[in-house]
Amino acid sequence: MDYEALGEDAATRIAAAEGLEALEALRIAYLGKQGSISALLKTLGALNPEERQATGPAIHALREHVTEALATRKEALEAAALEARLASERIDLTLPAPEAAPEILRGSVHPVSQVMDELAEIFADLGFAVASGPEIEDDWHNFTALNMPESHPARAMHDTFYFPDQTEGGHSGPGHGGDARALVLRTHTSPVQIRTMLGQQPPIRIIAPGRTYRSDSDATHTPMFHQIEGLVIDKGIHLGHLKWTLETFLKAFFERDDIVLRLRPSYFPFTEPSVEVDTGYSFVDGRRVVGGSGDAPGHSWMELLGSGMVHPRVLSACGLDPAEWQGFAFGCGVDRLAMLKYGMNDLRAFFDGDARWLRHYGFSALDVPSLSAGVGSRAGVSGAVA
Ligand code: 2NL
Question: In whole angstroms, what is the distance from residue 287 CA to residue 381 CA?
């Protein structure tokens, strides 16, 4: 028998198989239990050793040839099927979603992004630029320049995520602070302000919104959260400027004229004096609503942000003469501002990526915050996409 011709014939049929099902039928016909090649292999057992030596290798080569042809064709058919699927399931993201598009096709702006845009708009009106910097910081910019030298107790309060040691003979990790090159995930956006002071001459007016990280996780803390800090450096700056700026900012943000602030003495390593800023609020329909004096009937005070006059040591670390330049700084959680304004009660849901939550609390991308139109979304406190 001409096994080679048999093999060629089989290979031709296999290469012409139109689909995976047809291919499988051919595999069974040749190599299945009742297959023609399987039958040939079975005849080998009945042969004497000489005959087996003569025909065995040819039959085995035939099986090899057919097995290989099957594998090659299978790969080609599968690749073609994938190509077809990719082509048919492609979504053209450049097309606008039609009015009746399924909800899932319509994106929305996350409340954190919305609030950051609102803050940028409010502070732009006050002459502040938006500054940004790396989320992976070195120990010097995150701590040392902010008057938190090695072994400063406030370092421990930050629950820092340290990177594994990068340098030979260097060290990093809790208890090894002070190596200026050690890398951390920034615990606040203050290093952005440090970098700004080092990089440009005063007067400086900036806000630094962005992601920050602390090794902390419970109902009110997520390992990643968002902060906004503000910094003003100029001549003759005092606490009065700080209070006016914060009051103006909060009135614009909450879109209310009756915001009342209470400044309490506090402590931060990077400010002196340091003040904690409280605002009055009351409960309306079971929701915390900012406004009024915390001393008014039915009202209380809640802490909203931390601030103070920039510590002379921080100015010096950034090459500024404290006798010539003064400034104020403040810091506050963006996630918390969003919760207060738009009424969410669980911080963790912010970062679950649940599309239903995003549909409920998200904002239309076309609804850009502007002071003239009202800095909040037109969707207002309901926060829903229009
Ligand atoms: C808070 C308190 C604060 C600052 C942040 C700051 C930055 C520089 C110099 C001085 Cl470069 N201060 N930032 C000042 C006081 C308070 O944040 O409770 N944040 C969530």
Answer: 11
Peptide linkage before 203 cis (omega within 30 of 0): yes
H or E stretch covering 190: helix 190-199
pLDDT, tens only, 226-281: 999 999 999 999 999 999 999 999 999 999 999 999 999 999 999 999 999 999 99
Give pLDDT tens digits for 98-118: 666 666 556 889 999 999 999
CA distance 150 to 182: 12
Nearest-CA residue for atom 3 of ligand 1: 331
Q: What angle do CA 329, 177, 146 make, to 5 degrees?
A: 15
d(CA 380, CA 262): 27
pTM of the model: 0.71
381: which 2 tokens? 């406190």
Ligand 1 pocket: which residues have CB below 6 Å? 190, 193-194, 227, 229, 231, 268, 270-271, 306-308, 310, 314, 329-333
